[in-house]
Amino acid sequence: MIRRFLTFGAIAVGLVVAAVFGATAYQALRTPIQVSSAGSLTPESCSPGPCVDVKGFTLWVSEVKVDVGLVSMKVMFRNSSVATHVSPEDLQLIDTTRHVSGLIVDSPGCTTWTRHDFAGGETFGPVNICFRVFSTTRPFILRWSPDLGLFCCETNIKLN
């Protein structure tokens, strides 16, 4: 009887430890890389800005325009990393109300692309993309989640 109780107790403790470890790993995965204007957006990382370089995978943003609930921009990628692709699902825009929007294609001039496989310093783009926003007040945050492994990376680009 005591042996059975100890066995069930050990299993319960093991499950609790596994759950805590899993929750900690998930939180580490969801924590974005902090990018400040004086930090890794310097010309040594990438230029011209706004841009960000994450382990050799670079995203440039240009021609940001705001028009009645719609933010449009051009994006271009260069991949010199271990990542194998870029896809539209990797990008989200966050407005000042903290509303998160994915790419839209139901407006003139707004396009999307299918997953694009590339590596070895190749570039992709520029591509015209658009997002619906609740607030057109700047700044916006472009969230990019490149596929660089299980525990990497989510980064934000502040668009003034």
Number of strands: 11
Low-confidence stretches: 28-44
Give me the CATH architecture of the largest domain, please: Sandwich
Q: State the end-to-end CA separation.
A: 67 Å
- Multimeric organization: single chain
Determine the mean pLDDT: 82
Q: What is the helix/strand order?
A: HEEEEEEEEEEE
Assigned CATH class of the largest domain: Mainly Beta
Q: Report the CATH topology name of the largest domain.
A: Immunoglobulin-like
Instruction: Tell me the number of helical segments per DSSP (H or I, 4 or more residues long).
Output: 1
What would you note in describing this structure?
By secondary structure, the chain is α+β, with helices and mostly antiparallel strands. Helix content is 18%, strand content 36%. The chain starts with a helix and ends with a strand. The relative contact order is 0.21.
Keywords:
four-stranded antiparallel beta sheet, Immunoglobulin-like, elongated, five-stranded antiparallel beta sheet, 18% helix, alpha+beta, 11 strands, 36% strand, 2 domains, 160 residues
Helix-strand blueprint:
Elements: H1 2-30, E1 51-54, E2 57-67, E3 70-79, E4 85-86, E5 91-94, E6 100-101, E7 103-104, E8 116-117, E9 122-132, E10 140-144, E11 155-159
Antiparallel strand pairs: 1-2, 2-3, 3-9, 4-8, 5-6, 5-10, 7-9, 10-11
Summarize, please.
By secondary structure, the chain is an alpha+beta fold. It contains one helix and eleven strands; from the N terminus they run H-E-E-E-E-E-E-E-E-E-E-E. The protein folds into two domains: 1-31; 51-159, Immunoglobulin-like (Sandwich), CATH 2.60.40.
